[in-house]
Design a protein that fits this description.
The protein contains 5 helices and 10 strands. By secondary structure, it is an alpha+beta fold. The protein has 2 domains: 73 residues, no CATH class; 101 residues, no CATH class. It has a 4-stranded antiparallel sheet with strand order 1-10-3-4, with no helix packed on it. Strands 2-8-7-5 form a 4-stranded mixed sheet. Helix 1 packs across helix 4, helix 2 packs across helix 4 and helix 4 runs antiparallel to helix 5. The protein starts with 12 loop residues before the first helix and ends in a 19-residue tail after the last helix.
């Protein structure tokens, strides 16, 4: 028997809402049913931002460095900065002569304890101020003589659901099952309270599998640190 040869299955917002209501034993009948479901879907996406790193929302960014400027504003759709490094060339101009130097991420306490934050040189550390519009601060402030570009990987917010049948969710294929299960759970709290527990169990199970799959299959080596305080 021949297969379809297609791997493009996806759901638009209207279909996702229908699936969520059907799992609750209901059908959306009025305009407000669609509105409240869309709101729940966006809240679900916000919850996912607290659940971990989603690989399809990781993006490489670049920022031209200005001599003596330590702090740079990041796009407002950024949730956090994962890694950062300084480079001798912009991303589009990478070549065999490009040199990159990794930066170490530090927390607010460590950054606040650093002396003379505007001293210039080659940066070695960075701190992310996670406000509504995040900022990344380098230490020391770059002199921009050799390393002229800051490159950093961000985890971005999932785009909002703003329309219905002409819009798809900003979600990778492997997350479609847990998205529908999560919306059903959220809707059950408002429309079918007798199904809350069942919907929650299904959702958490689906989400757990999706998060486990949404990873990079690389080897991990853990080496214990040896300490011999009395060895002379």
């Amino acid at each position: 028997m021949a297969t379809s040869g297609s791997t493009s299955f996806d759901l638009n917002i209207d279909e996702i809402i229908d699936e969520g209501y059907e799992r609750c034993g209901l059908r959306p009948m009025a305009g407000y049913d669609l509105k409240t479901a869309r709101r729940s879907l966006n809240l679900l996406f916000a919850d996912w931002g607290n659940r971990g790193v989603h690989l399809w929302k990781v993006q490489l960014n670049e920022q031209a460095l200005t001599a003596g400027t330590a702090t740079y504003t990041v796009a407002s759709n950024v949730n956090d900065v994962l890694e950062a490094y300084i480079s001798t060339t912009a991303a589009a101009g990478d070549n065999a002569n490009t040199q990159d130097v990794a930066l170490t991420k530090i927390d607010r306490s460590a950054y606040s304890a650093l002396p003379n934050k505007l001293a210039t040189g080659q940066p070695s550390q960075y701190y992310v101020d996670r406000q509504t519009t995040p900022k990344i601060s380098l230490y020391v402030a770059p002199d921009a003589s050799t390393y002229t570009t800051l490159k950093f990987y961000t985890i971005n917010r999932i785009e909002d659901a703003t329309a219905y049948n002409d819009q798809q969710a900003d979600v990778a294929y492997r997350f479609l099952p847990c998205m529908c299960a999560g919306l059903a759970y959220y809707l059950s709290m408002k429309k079918a309270p007798d199904r809350i527990q069942a919907m929650k169990l299904i959702y958490e199970d689906e989400l757990k599998r999706a998060l486990e799959e949404d990873g990079q299959r690389t080897s991990l080596y853990v080496t214990p640190q040896s300490y011999f305080p009395n060895l002379t």
